[in-house]
Amino acid sequence: MQPDRPGELIDRGALIREIDFAPFHMRVSTDRYHSPEFARREREQLWMRVWQVAGRADDIPEAGDWMEYRLFDQSWVLVRGKDGAVRGFVNACRHRGNAFCTGKGHSPRFTCPYHNWSYGLDGALLAVARPDFEGSLEDFVGEKAELGLITAKVECFAGFIFINPDPSAAPLADFLGEVAGLLAPYKLEEMIPIGLNRREPLECNWKVVMDAFQEGYHIQAVHPELISAMDESQERYAFFGDHSVATGPFGAANLEDFGPEQQADSIRGLPATFPSVTEVLPRFEEMLNEHRSADGTLTFPEGVTGRILLQQATRDTLTGKGLDVSKLTDIQMSDNHFHLVFPNLFMTIRAGEATVIISTPHESGDPGRCYWQVMGLMWLPPEQRAAAREPLHEVKEGEHEPYFLALEQDYDQMQAQQRGLRNSGLTEMALTRQEVRLAYYHSALDSWVAERGKR
Ligand code: FES
Ligand SMILES: [Fe+2]
User: Fold this and answer.
1) For the chain, which has fewer Cβ within 10 Å, the N-terminal or C-terminal residue?
2) What is the distance in A from the centroid of ligand 2 to the CA of 405?
3) Which of 114, 118, 141 best tests ligand 1's pocket when mutated (most atoms within 8 Å of CB)?
4) What is the pTM (predicted TM-score) of this model?
């Protein structure tokens, strides 16, 4: 049973020194990043069988809104029905297979542009063109009821639309397992993309992207400006099915060794890297003032630290905005939790906000290319959401618009890694302990991609 605040499971996750490394494979083969044969198996064994994010539910908010989801050369249509439910259909007309949708749009029904067969938002075949022939439809093609659009498994969770190309797949809840309970209290389904919502082709394998966000080991070399904001020695790790979580403790490693004013200053500096902390600072300053003497000197009583005040200020601020954070732990008020929902959904989550990274294989099937989608999610009161929502922006092949500093650094690094990984002279990677999640992740991948698969 999960605790009342499920985040406690992660608060109690293992520190690196507490992990038994015996079961982990710290050497990982590199053909998975460039071999066409591996990519073929990955396509059939993983992608055509796994639950994967196809979009956000608020991409198609109104009945009749639809959008296409593509994976390699496969295509599905996701549509919001009149009953409010999101459904998925194979994007192929039941007459002679024409792809009847491209991109996204809104319509009361689907009409195939080849011979005008039309379908309801629930996929039912409504009519064939030339009503003079309709009476003979049964004679030629069988019952109308048998010729609805082919349904695909689609479920919504945390504001994401998940699809599974495998008609016999188990429900999404089975696949997510405990992760669903861990994510639920954040209310991701009430968050909207703000500021950043972009999809861009990259010159690297889709797993290079997922790898880059599952370890903090590269912070020292690639993101030196983040070192002072994170306490890597306190990172905690927890594994759930094929999924995993790590924490990114906020605040300098030796915060408690600093005086109260220094602690306060380090927290005042956080918005330079984590802009959303800005909205918490007024409450934080109020709480600090409660510990000031008449001459302005700041002293913390036993048990109070700048970090604890940050957590309380965050809880107060978010509660004041209308977000119920009662099921989130104090640590979730201050620290980033890095969730990897296998195989390709990564989220850095703090109370009230999340940064989402999704990588998918390139539709060409070239294992050296992929797309990544980067999205900043934030919780806002319902009446503010529609106006603030950032629509998805697709970056064209060969174009690039810079991201904020840390992401821009990753963008360059990932593509440089692929240039090395594709060398046939290199056959494996050697992981360090701080990269234990990669070992776990690639073992999960191997179990899916094995020719006969354990699943
Ligand atoms: S292929 Fe769609 S109506 Fe003929
Ligand atoms: Fe990074």
Assistant:
1) N
2) 10
3) 114
4) 0.94
User: Is 415 within the bounds of a domain?
Assistant: yes
Task: Read off the DSSP letter of residue 63.
Answer: T
Domain of residue 105: give its range: 54-156
| Nearest residue to 174 (alpha-carbon basis) of 242, 85, 237, 238 | 242
- Ligand 1 centroid to 424 CA: how many Å? 46
* Ligand 1 pocket test target in 77, 90, 95, 141 with most atoms within 8 Å of CB: 95
CA 228 to chain CA centroid, nearest Å: 26
Q: Which CATH number do you get for residue 368?
A: 3.90.380.10
One domain for residues 350 and 404: yes
Report the distance separating Cα 418 and Cα 204, nearest Å.
5
Angstrom distance (rounded) from CA 79 to CA 63: 8
Counting the structural domains of the chain, the total is 3
State whether the beta carbon of 117 lies less than 6 angstroms from ligand 1.
yes
Shared domain for 343 and 411, answered yes or no, is yes
Show pLDDT as tens, one digit a residue, over the chain (455 residues).
778 999 999 999 999 999 999 999 999 999 999 999 999 999 999 999 999 999 999 999 999 999 999 999 999 999 999 999 999 999 999 999 999 999 999 999 999 999 999 999 999 999 887 756 555 565 566 677 889 999 999 999 999 999 999 999 999 999 999 999 999 999 999 999 999 999 999 999 999 999 999 999 999 999 887 777 677 888 999 999 999 999 988 765 555 577 899 888 888 888 777 778 899 999 999 999 999 999 999 999 998 988 899 999 999 999 999 999 999 999 999 989 999 999 999 999 999 999 999 999 999 999 999 999 999 999 999 999 999 999 999 999 999 999 988 899 999 999 999 999 999 999 999 999 999 999 999 999 999 998 654 44
> E strands, 190-344, where?
191-202, 236-240, 243-248, 336-341
User: Residue 81 is part of a domain; what is its CATH number?
Assistant: 2.102.10.10
Residue 330 included in any domain: no
Q: Does 349 lie in the same domain as 242?
A: yes
